[in-house]
Each structure stands twice: as structure tokens, then as C-alpha cells.
């Protein structure tokens, strides 16, 4: 599959690049996509939820009523979860939600996501670009050139590009990442993916293994 190379104003440069069938032309694997997205979202969870259990409640330790003869259930502590103000039974505890996935599966999931976006014509390849200084206005102009100012977009660059990254940081619908940081959730969550030529080469070499 060939796609035209554009400049940052959205104009055709007259050049074309070939998208590797090994990366952008695979048969999408829905289950691999599901697992990779599930892992990504699980890794975003802090897992710091915690409620107090009966051992952590401050209160008297005396037996609150006699064992027999009251006609009601026996009770030994005011800190029991059955009483108001007592500890919570089986409440949430801090935990780590992350889990491991096979590298080959993650690679398949990312190739599947890129193939879906490429087949839907949601992939744009642009010349390598940079800004002289970090200014949000410069990045907004780029978005307007591609009619992405009201849509979710993912810009994939090659290497560290602090000026472009800082220029996009205030815009909630746009995200700038390095080619090595590409992930299934980010690819599928964007309406359009804008990728530089050098980033395309990096993705091809990284995912074609």
C-alpha cells in the first residue's frame, strides 16, 4: 500500500512511501487487541484504594453485651462490620493491577491496530518537521492544516522532539509520542494518526521483527 507524503501545511509533496504489509497489512487479531488494550488500561490504575477493616478502627475492646439471654445474635466488638462505625468487611485493599503479556502477542496487537487505521484511511504520513520554539499556536496551525482541530489525533515522531511535544501539551485532543512508545490503545483511540517519515521507518523496523 502506497500513501502520499504531505508537508505540515497539508499539501502533497509529490512523493509516496510504501507501507509494509508486515505491519500495516496484517489480518487484525481482535483477541490480541483486546488483551493489549486491557493491559494498557490496567497499568493506568493506581491501585491505592483502601478501606478500614475492624482491626484499624478506633474503639473500645470490651464485649458490648452478654453472650446469652438477650434474644439477639451474640456480639463481641463494637468494631465489627455489622455495626454502624465499624470496619468494612471484605473492603478494597491496595493492589497491583498489571499483568504480563507475551511480546509476540503485543507486537501482533499493535500491527493489527495499525492495519485497521491504515485500511480506514486514517493514517497520514508527513515530512519530518520541527518548531523553532515551543508554541501551542504553531501546533494548532498544523492541526488546522489537516482538519484535526476538533478531532482526536496521534502524532508519531522519531526521536525526542521537545519543541513539538511542548507545543501540543496543552491540547487535550492531541497527543505526541515517540515511535518507540506506540501502543494499541493510543492507535485505536485516535481519529487520525499523523506519522513522520522517519517514525514510519522506525515502526517498520521495530514491528517487523
TrEMBL record:
It comes from Polaribacter porphyrae. The keyword Transferase does not apply. The lineage of its organism: Bacteria, Pseudomonadati, Bacteroidota, Flavobacteriia, Flavobacteriales. GO terms for biological process: translation. One of the primary rRNA binding proteins, this protein initially binds near the 5'-end of the 23S rRNA. It is important during the early stages of 50S assembly. It makes multiple contacts with different domains of the 23S rRNA in the assembled 50S subunit and ribosome. InterPro entries: Ribosomal_uL4, Ribosomal_uL4-like, Ribosomal_uL4_dom_sf. This is Large ribosomal subunit protein uL4. Coiled coil: none annotated. The keyword Ribonucleoprotein applies. Keywords: Ribonucleoprotein, Ribosomal protein, RNA-binding, rRNA-binding. One of its GO terms (molecular function) is structural constituent of ribosome. Belongs to the universal ribosomal protein uL4 family.
Amino acid at each position: 500500500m502506497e500513501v502520499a507524503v504531505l508537508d505540515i501545511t497539508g499539501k502533497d509533496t509529490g512523493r509516496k512511501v510504501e507501507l509494509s504489509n508486515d505491519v500495516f497489512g496484517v489480518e487484525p487479531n481482535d483477541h490480541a487487541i483486546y488483551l493489549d488494550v486491557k493491559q494498557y488500561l490496567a497499568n493506568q490504575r493506581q491501585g491505592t484504594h483502601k478501606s478500614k477493616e475492624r482491626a484499624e478502627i478506633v474503639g473500645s475492646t470490651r464485649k458490648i453485651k452478654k453472650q446469652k439471654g438477650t434474644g439477639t445474635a451474640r456480639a463481641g466488638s463494637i468494631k465489627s462490620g455489622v455495626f454502624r462505625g465499624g470496619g468494612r468487611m471484605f473492603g478494597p485493599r491496595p493492589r497491583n493491577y498489571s499483568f504480563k503479556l507475551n511480546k509476540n502477542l503485543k507486537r501482533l496487537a499493535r500491527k493489527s491496530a495499525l492495519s485497521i487505521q491504515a485500511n480506514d484511511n486514517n493514517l497520514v504520513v508527513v515530512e519530518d518537521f520541527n518548531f523553532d520554539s515551543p508554541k501551542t499556536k504553531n501546533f494548532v496551525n498544523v492541526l488546522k492544516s489537516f482538519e484535526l482541530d476538533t478531532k482526536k489525533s496521534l502524532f508519531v515522531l522519531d526521536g525526542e522532539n521537545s519543541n513539538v511535544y511542548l507545543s501540543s501539551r496543552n491540547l487535550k485532543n492531541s497527543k505526541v509520542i515517540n515511535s518507540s512508545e506506540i501502543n494499541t490503545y493510543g492507535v485505536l483511540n485516535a481519529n487520525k494518526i499523523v506519522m513522520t517519515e522517519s517514525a514510519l521507518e522506525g515502526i517498520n523496523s521495530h514491528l517487523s521483527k
